[in-house]
């Protein structure tokens, strides 16, 4: 689960520090509501009220995201996965309902869709 935290931290860094005018990306992929909502949810994770509490930091599995923080991302993560044509039942079958696995899956989709596109000439 440390991988989950590192991936999300990297995505937050990318989302908050990137200069969108420099990135050459597929505009239609970035403009979907699901992509926008997921990006905004990741940005919201860095707001003070959504940061890990001192109690969460003392937990033995820290820096893994707490259930409270996972619950903030879960609805938009499912929305992003479903926007690719995957049903809710398939999501639950593939991940066994594991919130971390669902968030990782959505993060993989987000990263794939924000990679700079390679133009073939």
Describe this structure in words.
The structure is a single chain. Helix content is 64%, strand content 0%. It has 121 residues and is mainly α. It has one domain. The radius of gyration is 15 Å and the shape is globular.
Give the secondary structure arrangement, pairings included:
Layout: H1 2-17, H2 27-30, H3 33-44, H4 54-58, H5 67-82, H6 88-95, H7 99-114
Helix pairs in contact: 1-7, 3-5, 5-7
Put the structure in a nutshell:
The chain has 121 residues and is mainly α.
Q: Strand tally, please?
A: 0
Overall residue-averaged pLDDT value: 78
Helix fraction, binned, reads 55-70%
Number of helices: 7
Largest sheet: none
How many domain regions?
A: 1
Strand content: under 5%
Radius of gyration: 15 Å
Return the string of H and E elements. HHHHHHH
Signal peptide: 1-23
Keywords: Signal
Please name the defining characteristics of this protein.
single chain; 121 residues; mainly alpha; globular
């Amino acid at each position: 689960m440390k991988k989950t935290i590192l991936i999300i931290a990297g995505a937050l860094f990318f989302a908050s520090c990137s200069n969108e005018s420099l990135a050459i990306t597929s505009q239609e992929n970035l403009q979907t509501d699901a992509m926008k909502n997921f990006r905004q949810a990741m940005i919201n994770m860095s707001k003070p009220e959504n940061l890990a509490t001192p109690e969460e930091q003392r937990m033995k599995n820290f820096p893994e995201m707490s259930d409270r923080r996972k619950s903030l991302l879960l609805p938009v993560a499912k929305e992003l996965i479903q926007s690719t044509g995957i049903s809710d039942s398939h999501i639950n079958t593939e991940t066994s309902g594991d919130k971390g696995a669902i968030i990782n899956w959505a993060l993989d989709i987000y990263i794939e869709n924000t990679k700079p596109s390679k133009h073939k000439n």
